[in-house]
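If you are new to this repository, start here. Below is one unmodified record pulled from the training split, so you can see the exact layout before writing a loader.
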Amino acid sequence: MATVLKTRFGDVQVQKEIIQGDFDNIPIIDLAAMSSPDLEEREKLAAQIYDACSRVGFFYIKNHGVTEELISKLHDGAHNFFALPEEQKMDCYIGNSQRFRGFSPLYGEHGDTEIYEKKMGNLSEAFDIGYEIAGDRQKGPNDVLPPDNFSLYGGNQWPKEENLPGFRETYLSYFGEVLELSRRLMKIFALSLDLPEDYFDGIVKYPGCISRLMHYPPQPVPGEEQVGIAIHTDYECFTILSQDTVPALQVLNAHGNWVACPPIPGTFVVNIGDFFAFWTNGIFKSTLHRATNLTGQERYSIPFFFGVDYDATVSVLENCITADNPAKSGPVKAGEHVRKQLANTYVNYGEKVEKNATVSAAA
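And here is the target side for that same chain:
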Protein backbone atom coordinates (compact mmCIF):
# COMPACT_ATOMS: atom_id res chain seq x y z
CA MET A 1 0.00 0.00 0.00
CA ALA A 2 1.22 3.50 -0.77
CA THR A 3 0.46 7.04 0.24
CA VAL A 4 1.13 10.38 -1.47
CA LEU A 5 3.05 13.35 -0.09
CA LYS A 6 2.37 16.79 -1.56
CA THR A 7 5.58 18.73 -2.29
CA ARG A 8 6.49 21.74 -4.37
CA PHE A 9 8.00 19.27 -6.84
CA GLY A 10 4.65 17.54 -7.26
CA ASP A 11 3.15 14.44 -5.72
CA VAL A 12 5.61 11.90 -4.32
CA GLN A 13 4.27 8.38 -3.85
CA VAL A 14 5.85 6.36 -1.03
CA GLN A 15 5.23 3.02 0.63
CA LYS A 16 3.35 3.36 3.91
CA GLU A 17 6.05 1.47 5.80
CA ILE A 18 8.62 4.17 4.94
CA ILE A 19 6.40 7.19 5.41
CA GLN A 20 8.28 10.25 6.58
CA GLY A 21 8.46 11.37 10.19
CA ASP A 22 7.25 14.58 11.78
CA PHE A 23 10.46 16.58 12.33
CA ASP A 24 11.99 19.95 11.48
CA ASN A 25 15.65 19.35 12.36
CA ILE A 26 18.26 16.57 12.29
CA PRO A 27 19.50 15.46 15.75
CA ILE A 28 23.20 15.20 16.65
CA ILE A 29 24.23 12.11 18.66
CA ASP A 30 27.53 11.69 20.49
CA LEU A 31 28.82 8.12 20.09
CA ALA A 32 31.38 8.34 22.90
CA ALA A 33 29.32 5.96 25.05
CA MET A 34 29.44 3.29 22.33
CA SER A 35 32.84 2.22 23.73
CA SER A 36 31.77 2.35 27.36
CA PRO A 37 32.16 -0.86 29.38
CA ASP A 38 28.98 0.17 31.22
CA LEU A 39 25.93 -1.47 29.62
CA GLU A 40 23.66 1.21 31.07
CA GLU A 41 25.63 3.92 29.23
CA ARG A 42 25.35 1.98 25.96
CA GLU A 43 21.62 1.55 26.53
CA LYS A 44 21.21 5.31 27.03
CA LEU A 45 22.94 5.84 23.67
CA ALA A 46 20.68 3.20 22.11
CA ALA A 47 17.62 5.08 23.38
CA GLN A 48 18.81 8.27 21.65
CA ILE A 49 19.35 6.37 18.43
CA TYR A 50 15.93 4.72 18.66
CA ASP A 51 14.33 8.15 19.03
CA ALA A 52 16.17 9.52 15.98
CA CYS A 53 15.44 6.44 13.85
CA SER A 54 11.76 6.29 14.73
CA ARG A 55 11.07 10.03 14.41
CA VAL A 56 13.42 11.18 11.64
CA GLY A 57 15.43 8.38 10.06
CA PHE A 58 18.43 10.74 9.91
CA PHE A 59 20.95 11.86 12.54
CA TYR A 60 24.48 13.23 12.80
CA ILE A 61 27.13 11.30 14.73
CA LYS A 62 30.20 12.76 16.42
CA ASN A 63 33.07 11.03 18.23
CA HIS A 64 32.63 8.21 15.74
CA GLY A 65 36.27 7.09 15.80
CA VAL A 66 37.20 7.52 12.13
CA THR A 67 40.23 9.82 11.93
CA GLU A 68 39.84 13.24 10.36
CA GLU A 69 43.19 12.70 8.66
CA LEU A 70 41.91 9.66 6.79
CA ILE A 71 38.61 11.36 5.90
CA SER A 72 40.48 14.37 4.52
CA LYS A 73 42.87 12.13 2.60
CA LEU A 74 40.02 10.32 0.86
CA HIS A 75 38.25 13.61 0.04
CA ASP A 76 41.51 14.68 -1.62
CA GLY A 77 41.42 11.37 -3.49
CA ALA A 78 37.89 12.14 -4.68
CA HIS A 79 39.00 15.54 -6.00
CA ASN A 80 41.90 13.89 -7.79
CA PHE A 81 39.79 11.11 -9.29
CA PHE A 82 37.12 13.40 -10.73
CA ALA A 83 39.83 15.74 -12.07
CA LEU A 84 41.19 12.93 -14.26
CA PRO A 85 40.59 13.13 -18.01
CA GLU A 86 37.28 11.54 -18.95
CA GLU A 87 38.95 8.70 -20.84
CA GLN A 88 40.92 7.69 -17.72
CA LYS A 89 37.77 7.70 -15.60
CA MET A 90 36.02 5.66 -18.30
CA ASP A 91 38.68 2.98 -17.89
CA CYS A 92 36.61 2.12 -14.79
CA TYR A 93 33.22 2.56 -16.50
CA ILE A 94 30.47 0.96 -14.42
CA GLY A 95 28.77 -0.40 -17.53
CA ASN A 96 31.71 -2.79 -17.97
CA SER A 97 31.26 -4.18 -14.47
CA GLN A 98 29.39 -7.32 -13.48
CA ARG A 99 28.45 -5.81 -10.11
CA PHE A 100 27.51 -2.14 -10.63
CA ARG A 101 30.95 -0.95 -9.54
CA GLY A 102 33.11 1.72 -11.10
CA PHE A 103 32.69 5.15 -12.66
CA SER A 104 29.25 6.58 -13.44
CA PRO A 105 29.48 9.74 -15.59
CA LEU A 106 27.30 12.84 -15.35
CA TYR A 107 23.60 12.06 -15.96
CA GLY A 108 24.49 8.35 -15.80
CA GLU A 109 21.86 7.35 -13.27
CA HIS A 110 18.29 8.12 -12.34
CA GLY A 111 16.44 8.07 -9.06
CA ASP A 112 13.63 5.63 -8.37
CA THR A 113 11.32 6.45 -11.29
CA GLU A 114 8.31 5.13 -9.34
CA ILE A 115 8.59 8.04 -6.90
CA TYR A 116 10.37 10.64 -8.99
CA GLU A 117 9.15 10.74 -12.57
CA LYS A 118 11.51 13.24 -14.18
CA LYS A 119 13.52 11.37 -16.80
CA MET A 120 16.68 13.50 -16.77
CA GLY A 121 19.67 11.82 -15.14
CA ASN A 122 21.29 13.14 -11.99
CA LEU A 123 23.64 16.12 -12.15
CA SER A 124 26.45 14.19 -10.49
CA GLU A 125 29.16 11.69 -11.25
CA ALA A 126 30.27 8.86 -9.01
CA PHE A 127 32.86 6.17 -8.40
CA ASP A 128 31.57 3.06 -6.62
CA ILE A 129 33.32 0.22 -4.84
CA GLY A 130 31.83 -2.76 -3.02
CA TYR A 131 32.90 -5.18 -0.34
CA GLU A 132 36.23 -6.90 -0.86
CA ILE A 133 38.24 -8.83 1.70
CA ALA A 134 41.20 -6.42 1.43
CA GLY A 135 38.95 -3.72 2.91
CA ASP A 136 37.76 -5.79 5.90
CA ARG A 137 39.95 -5.62 9.00
CA GLN A 138 38.32 -8.74 10.42
CA LYS A 139 39.54 -10.86 7.51
CA GLY A 140 42.96 -12.30 6.69
CA PRO A 141 44.80 -13.55 3.59
CA ASN A 142 43.25 -17.03 3.88
CA ASP A 143 39.65 -15.80 3.91
CA VAL A 144 37.60 -16.21 0.74
CA LEU A 145 34.33 -14.68 -0.38
CA PRO A 146 31.14 -16.72 0.10
CA PRO A 147 29.20 -18.13 -2.90
CA ASP A 148 28.08 -15.26 -5.14
CA ASN A 149 24.43 -16.10 -5.70
CA PHE A 150 23.54 -12.56 -6.83
CA SER A 151 26.73 -11.52 -8.70
CA LEU A 152 27.37 -8.80 -6.11
CA TYR A 153 30.55 -10.00 -4.40
CA GLY A 154 33.94 -9.75 -6.11
CA GLY A 155 36.64 -7.37 -7.20
CA ASN A 156 36.31 -3.66 -7.81
CA GLN A 157 37.42 -1.63 -10.81
CA TRP A 158 40.27 0.72 -9.88
CA PRO A 159 42.00 3.56 -11.75
CA LYS A 160 45.54 2.79 -12.80
CA GLU A 161 48.10 3.30 -10.02
CA GLU A 162 50.22 5.56 -12.22
CA ASN A 163 47.23 7.88 -12.70
CA LEU A 164 46.29 8.02 -9.00
CA PRO A 165 49.14 6.78 -6.78
CA GLY A 166 47.92 5.44 -3.44
CA PHE A 167 44.23 5.92 -4.27
CA ARG A 168 43.20 2.26 -3.85
CA GLU A 169 45.14 1.91 -0.60
CA THR A 170 43.55 5.06 0.87
CA TYR A 171 40.04 4.08 -0.17
CA LEU A 172 40.30 0.55 1.25
CA SER A 173 41.72 1.95 4.50
CA TYR A 174 38.72 4.28 4.82
CA PHE A 175 36.36 1.47 3.82
CA GLY A 176 37.84 -0.69 6.60
CA GLU A 177 37.42 1.97 9.30
CA VAL A 178 33.83 2.79 8.35
CA LEU A 179 33.02 -0.92 8.10
CA GLU A 180 34.21 -1.40 11.69
CA LEU A 181 32.15 1.63 12.78
CA SER A 182 29.11 0.11 11.04
CA ARG A 183 29.46 -3.23 12.81
CA ARG A 184 29.69 -1.42 16.15
CA LEU A 185 26.59 0.61 15.28
CA MET A 186 24.71 -2.61 14.54
CA LYS A 187 25.23 -3.61 18.17
CA ILE A 188 23.73 -0.32 19.34
CA PHE A 189 20.84 -0.72 16.91
CA ALA A 190 20.23 -4.17 18.39
CA LEU A 191 20.11 -2.71 21.90
CA SER A 192 17.75 0.01 20.72
CA LEU A 193 15.34 -2.72 19.58
CA ASP A 194 15.53 -4.63 22.88
CA LEU A 195 17.67 -7.34 21.30
CA PRO A 196 20.99 -8.82 22.47
CA GLU A 197 23.95 -6.70 21.32
CA ASP A 198 25.28 -9.55 19.17
CA TYR A 199 21.90 -10.23 17.52
CA PHE A 200 23.03 -9.13 14.04
CA ASP A 201 26.63 -10.39 14.24
CA GLY A 202 25.97 -13.62 12.31
CA ILE A 203 24.73 -11.83 9.18
CA VAL A 204 27.41 -9.15 8.86
CA LYS A 205 30.40 -11.42 8.28
CA TYR A 206 30.67 -10.46 4.59
CA PRO A 207 28.35 -7.45 4.61
CA GLY A 208 26.84 -6.09 1.44
CA CYS A 209 28.53 -2.69 1.60
CA ILE A 210 28.88 -0.16 -1.20
CA SER A 211 30.84 3.08 -0.93
CA ARG A 212 30.76 5.97 -3.39
CA LEU A 213 32.79 9.02 -4.17
CA MET A 214 30.35 11.69 -5.40
CA HIS A 215 30.97 14.88 -7.34
CA TYR A 216 28.21 17.47 -7.79
CA PRO A 217 29.23 20.23 -10.21
CA PRO A 218 27.55 23.65 -10.07
CA GLN A 219 24.29 24.11 -11.96
CA PRO A 220 25.06 24.39 -15.69
CA VAL A 221 22.83 27.47 -16.04
CA PRO A 222 22.49 29.99 -13.17
CA GLY A 223 19.02 29.82 -11.69
CA GLU A 224 18.31 26.27 -12.85
CA GLU A 225 17.63 23.54 -10.31
CA GLN A 226 18.76 20.16 -11.57
CA VAL A 227 18.94 17.50 -8.88
CA GLY A 228 22.32 15.99 -8.10
CA ILE A 229 20.63 12.86 -6.73
CA ALA A 230 16.87 12.54 -7.23
CA ILE A 231 14.42 11.82 -4.43
CA HIS A 232 15.02 8.31 -3.09
CA THR A 233 15.43 6.06 -0.10
CA ASP A 234 18.54 3.93 0.42
CA TYR A 235 18.40 0.17 -0.08
CA GLU A 236 20.49 -1.20 2.77
CA CYS A 237 20.41 -1.06 6.60
CA PHE A 238 21.87 2.42 6.93
CA THR A 239 24.18 4.92 5.27
CA ILE A 240 27.15 6.76 6.77
CA LEU A 241 27.80 9.96 4.82
CA SER A 242 30.88 12.17 4.86
CA GLN A 243 30.12 15.64 3.48
CA ASP A 244 32.57 18.36 2.52
CA THR A 245 31.79 22.00 3.36
CA VAL A 246 29.27 22.56 0.53
CA PRO A 247 25.59 22.00 1.46
CA ALA A 248 23.20 20.06 -0.79
CA LEU A 249 21.48 17.31 1.22
CA GLN A 250 17.79 17.74 2.00
CA VAL A 251 15.42 15.42 3.87
CA LEU A 252 11.65 15.24 3.32
CA ASN A 253 9.37 15.33 6.36
CA ALA A 254 5.77 14.23 6.79
CA HIS A 255 4.47 17.69 5.84
CA GLY A 256 6.18 17.61 2.44
CA ASN A 257 8.82 20.12 3.53
CA TRP A 258 12.51 19.81 2.82
CA VAL A 259 14.71 19.94 5.91
CA ALA A 260 18.33 20.91 5.30
CA CYS A 261 21.06 18.56 6.46
CA PRO A 262 24.12 20.83 6.12
CA PRO A 263 27.73 19.79 6.76
CA ILE A 264 28.81 19.96 10.41
CA PRO A 265 32.57 19.65 11.05
CA GLY A 266 33.61 16.49 12.87
CA THR A 267 30.42 14.58 12.07
CA PHE A 268 29.02 11.97 9.73
CA VAL A 269 25.37 11.86 8.71
CA VAL A 270 23.62 8.51 9.28
CA ASN A 271 20.32 7.61 7.68
CA ILE A 272 18.18 4.50 7.92
CA GLY A 273 17.64 2.41 4.77
CA ASP A 274 14.94 0.08 3.54
CA PHE A 275 16.22 -3.06 5.29
CA PHE A 276 15.79 -1.52 8.73
CA ALA A 277 12.36 -0.20 7.73
CA PHE A 278 11.41 -3.77 6.73
CA TRP A 279 12.98 -5.30 9.85
CA THR A 280 11.28 -2.91 12.27
CA ASN A 281 7.92 -2.97 10.50
CA GLY A 282 8.09 0.73 9.74
CA ILE A 283 9.15 1.85 13.22
CA PHE A 284 12.52 2.96 11.85
CA LYS A 285 12.01 5.45 9.02
CA SER A 286 13.74 5.00 5.67
CA THR A 287 13.36 8.66 4.86
CA LEU A 288 13.14 10.21 1.41
CA HIS A 289 16.00 12.57 0.62
CA ARG A 290 17.81 14.22 -2.26
CA ALA A 291 20.91 16.30 -2.96
CA THR A 292 20.81 19.48 -5.02
CA ASN A 293 23.88 21.69 -5.30
CA LEU A 294 22.75 25.32 -5.68
CA THR A 295 25.89 26.94 -4.28
CA GLY A 296 27.82 27.60 -7.50
CA GLN A 297 30.70 25.56 -6.03
CA GLU A 298 31.96 22.04 -6.64
CA ARG A 299 30.63 19.59 -4.03
CA TYR A 300 32.08 16.22 -3.01
CA SER A 301 30.68 13.62 -0.64
CA ILE A 302 31.39 10.02 0.35
CA PRO A 303 28.41 7.82 1.27
CA PHE A 304 28.95 4.32 2.70
CA PHE A 305 25.94 2.02 2.42
CA PHE A 306 25.99 -0.77 5.02
CA GLY A 307 23.98 -3.91 4.41
CA VAL A 308 23.87 -7.47 5.66
CA ASP A 309 25.41 -10.51 3.95
CA TYR A 310 23.82 -10.87 0.52
CA ASP A 311 22.55 -14.39 1.26
CA ALA A 312 20.79 -13.22 4.46
CA THR A 313 17.03 -12.97 4.69
CA VAL A 314 15.49 -9.90 6.30
CA SER A 315 12.17 -10.60 8.05
CA VAL A 316 10.06 -8.41 10.31
CA LEU A 317 11.29 -8.67 13.90
CA GLU A 318 8.74 -10.39 16.12
CA ASN A 319 8.95 -7.69 18.78
CA CYS A 320 7.98 -5.09 16.15
CA ILE A 321 4.68 -6.82 15.36
CA THR A 322 1.58 -5.98 17.36
CA ALA A 323 -2.16 -6.20 16.89
CA ASP A 324 -2.16 -2.53 15.91
CA ASN A 325 0.92 -2.90 13.71
CA PRO A 326 0.79 -6.24 11.86
CA ALA A 327 3.68 -7.25 9.61
CA LYS A 328 3.75 -4.94 6.59
CA SER A 329 6.02 -7.05 4.37
CA GLY A 330 7.21 -10.60 3.91
CA PRO A 331 10.80 -11.85 4.05
CA VAL A 332 13.30 -10.09 1.76
CA LYS A 333 16.44 -11.79 0.42
CA ALA A 334 19.13 -9.13 0.80
CA GLY A 335 21.09 -9.75 -2.40
CA GLU A 336 17.97 -10.05 -4.53
CA HIS A 337 16.61 -6.75 -3.22
CA VAL A 338 19.89 -4.86 -3.67
CA ARG A 339 20.49 -6.15 -7.19
CA LYS A 340 16.97 -5.18 -8.26
CA GLN A 341 17.34 -1.68 -6.83
CA LEU A 342 20.75 -1.16 -8.46
CA ALA A 343 19.36 -2.27 -11.83
CA ASN A 344 16.50 0.24 -11.47
CA THR A 345 18.92 3.04 -10.55
CA TYR A 346 21.38 2.52 -13.39
CA VAL A 347 18.73 2.48 -16.10
CA ASN A 348 21.12 3.86 -18.75
CA TYR A 349 23.39 0.83 -18.64
CA GLY A 350 21.72 -1.64 -16.29
CA GLU A 351 21.02 -4.06 -19.17
CA LYS A 352 24.71 -4.16 -20.02
CA VAL A 353 25.70 -4.86 -16.41
CA GLU A 354 23.09 -7.61 -16.16
CA LYS A 355 24.38 -9.17 -19.39
CA ASN A 356 27.94 -9.09 -18.01
CA ALA A 357 26.77 -10.80 -14.81
CA THR A 358 24.86 -13.47 -16.77
CA VAL A 359 27.88 -14.26 -18.95
CA SER A 360 30.09 -14.43 -15.85
CA ALA A 361 27.72 -16.80 -14.07
CA ALA A 362 27.56 -19.09 -17.09
CA ALA A 363 31.35 -19.21 -17.55
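Two things worth knowing about this chain: The chain has seven helices and 16 strands. Residues 167-192 form the longest helix (26 residues).
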